[in-house]
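Before surveying the methods themselves, let us examine one representative protein, written as a sequence plus integers encoding its fold.
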Amino acid sequence: MITKGGIRKYKFKNSKIRPFNTKPEGNKGAVFGFRTKPNMIASRGIVLTSEEALWENEDCLSHWTPNVYSYGTYADEGRTIVKGHSEKNLKQINTFVIDFDKVPGEKLDVQMILDAALDLELLPTLILKTPGGYQAYFILENAWFISSVKDYQSIEIAKKVSENLRKAFAETLSSVDLGCNHFGIARIPRTDNVAYVYPALTHDMQKFIDWSMRYQPAETHENRHLRIVPEAGEIQQIKEKWVDILLKNPEIVGQKGTLGRNNAVFTLSLAYYASAVEMDRCLDDMDLFNSNLDYPLASNEVYKIVTSAYSGKYRGANKEKVLELLANWGSEALSEDQLFTQKRSHWCKFKKDRSERKKSHIHEWKVDILNYLETQCYRYRPEIEIRKTEIQAAISYTHQGVEKNIPKRSLDKAMNELKAEGKLFIKIKAGRGGGLIVATRKSLIRTVIVVNRHVKEAYKKSIRTFFREAAMLTKMLETGYKEDKTGIFEVQLNLRDTG
């Protein structure tokens, strides 16, 4: 499923299972295997050119290259040091891999990864448990072949897809490793580390490219609303003195009750965003700023802060926050005219926290509704019978010490929007004792993934009975993968017994 025919089925020489009437296959690619992580770091491994060789090493390897290279060889006479797993030697890309490194004290499990994937509508095909966290494989339906045309443009396209995949997941899960090699070495699937697998969910590369192109503009924010004051297009917050003061202060730390490192990174990032600076450059500058601090933040924390600043929820740095940061960490006593050299008609204000507002926004109620309904859904019974009054009573928040429930009109509007977006399925149950039969999109997909294979078809029919709109949903998850009952080692069973 992963190698996509990029390597031979049987060994070229000394095959133990190739049928006697089958000729050796022609030239194909190679993958690399490593028995331990220290060996992998030292490039001490083996070159594998067939599926047969992979099966012979089942559960003996810890790492491998799931994408196929044109060739592999050894760098020493003892044939222990492998070489050839370089980017420009790639023959085909079979899968994208995201590495989730669990931070000590942080909760991370397969369900959290799947929930993030469901929100993004980017479900992995395979998730492996690793000593430090998890690795998710997004296996392609067909291999993406590498060409040297236009200086290996096909690699650059795939790399951008891989980069955006990681960034999309990092917006929800801070454990994503953004820096590892896109098409290098990964953990190998073994009988003792597969945490989740759904073979039907392979991905079309062109759809990945289309998604990546849609995702990219939201990342760079190249639009006319980037400036803090639209009528003063040349104003750039990053050119002001206060930005320079904060960037050059390595002593900023985090203290309870005091604006510190996190707020400094966030405020500086907002200044970059308001000045139409691309997010990638902001990330580089904030990483440099953070690394110069006496007590730096974790790099994934910096990424989360910058991403939040570039989310589009804010227009620029807040003057009161800037002044408070400078009061805590400014080394120079400067007037406001010296700190804020560019004149503007107004400053941006942060949105009030929900607890400080009398009314909630519809998008906030929608999140509340989905979160509540998902707590009521069960793995094998995601659709629930409920009355609208029960939902209304359950959805509430606290404003200035007073608990408030969602208004009926807001509930109706939020549920109708969720239904139109395909995130909520609703069927009205008429008659005495009636109400609603409700299921969230996430809970339905989760159940289809985890239910026992024998009850899967019956369950899909049950979903269609409740919600006609769910037909497309279940079709997306139809098992297009059929297990080959005559696997690589069983193929000889069909041979004639020659005695």
Observations:
- Residues 236 and 275 are 5 Å apart (CA to CA).
